[in-house]
Design goal:
alpha/beta; 5-stranded parallel β-sheet; globular
């Protein structure tokens, strides 16, 4: 069954997110997109709001013996979110989790450095920060990204996503000052079902959105 609403592509979803942010009168200072899929949306949001675009990077932490199954995620600075139920259910132990946390935090740092090049990480002091992604399912990487800013000097933290399941969006509202989500369908199966075009975004394409 097709969803009631589909975005043509990530850029259109970003344009609609920007409209929603403006309708809510969110006075953003910077947009931070989560690579790779968040960058087309982040570019559209940043252009519409006339703010700089940068990135925030996190990597999933996979279960022992099943690396595709996320038991948490870690941002480039080591800020971590752990799904305690999944962690216990997979039999992963604390030593394994901490080893993976260190390894994936290093991978996230390397990715952030590759995307930024010579540019320094932005100063978020007293800023209203909008974190943008192309959608959430379990929200593990988004949660790790948000944790990165909870101890920062940012004034306000807003998450902007086109779509996510109601329970995940409700939980993410506890991690931010505000969540802007265009669709919270009860029949959510995956982010891709809400896009007519949801092809992979390559690193090269994703980085190109930062160069504009």
């Amino acid at each position: 069954m097709e969803p009631d609403r589909q975005f043509r592509d990530r850029t259109e979803a970003g344009e609609q997110l920007a409209d929603a942010l403006q309708e809510r009168e969110i006075d953003a200072d910077i947009a931070l997109a989560i690579p790779r899929g968040g960058l087309p949306l982040g570019r559209a949001v940043a252009d519409a709001l006339d703010v700089p675009l940068d990135i925030v990077v996190a990597k999933k932490i996979g279960a022992s013996g099943n690396p595709e199954f996320a038991i948490g995620a870690v941002a480039s600075d080591g800020s971590v979110w752990r799904n305690e139920k999944a962690f216990r259910g997979t039999g992963s132990d604390e030593e394994y989790f901490q080893e993976q946390r260190e390894e994936e935090a290093k991978n996230a740092r390397q990715k952030a450095e590759r995307y930024r090049g010579d540019r320094a990480e932005p100063d978020l002091t007293d800023k209203t920060v909008v974190v943008v992604d192309d959608g959430v399912a379990t929200g593990s990487t988004v949660r790790a990204c948000l944790r990165k800013f909870q101890g920062s000097d940012a004034d306000r933290l807003v998450l902007a996503v086109p779509v996510g399941p109601p329970d995940t969006i409700d939980e993410l509202e506890d991690e931010t000052d505000e969540v802007v989500c265009l669709e919270t369908p009860a029949g959510f199966r995956g982010v891709g079902q809400f896009y007519a075009n949801f092809g992979q975004v390559s690193d090269e394409e994703a980085m190109s959105y930062l160069e504009r």
